[in-house]
Amino acid sequence: QVQLVESGGGLVQAGGSLRLSCAASRSIFSFYAMGWYRQVPGKQRDLVAAITSGGSTDYADSVKGRFTIPRDNAKNTVALQMNSLKPEETAVYYCNARTFRGPNWGQGTQVTVSS
What is the pLDDT of residue 53? Predict the structure, then answer.
């Protein structure tokens, strides 16, 4: 299994930017994909962005053009650069890694966007 540790969450004003980081406990080179999900209380956890081992990316329609998901295999990290944040994007953001053993999740980091 893989331990994932997220950082970078916090409070930001609407229209602002925030960068989340996810550090893996071992090499991410062979991971099928890594991604970021978010969840608000009482709702399902939704995909925000993902990147495959080959560098292909997938974004939720609501974040296209504002969020990016850079992956650094050398540092075993994946980030989520979030720009032009909206209050409705307040949520707990989770890092995910898909390996041949299955999915792995971080503990989550809170992002709060004030209006």
Answer: 92
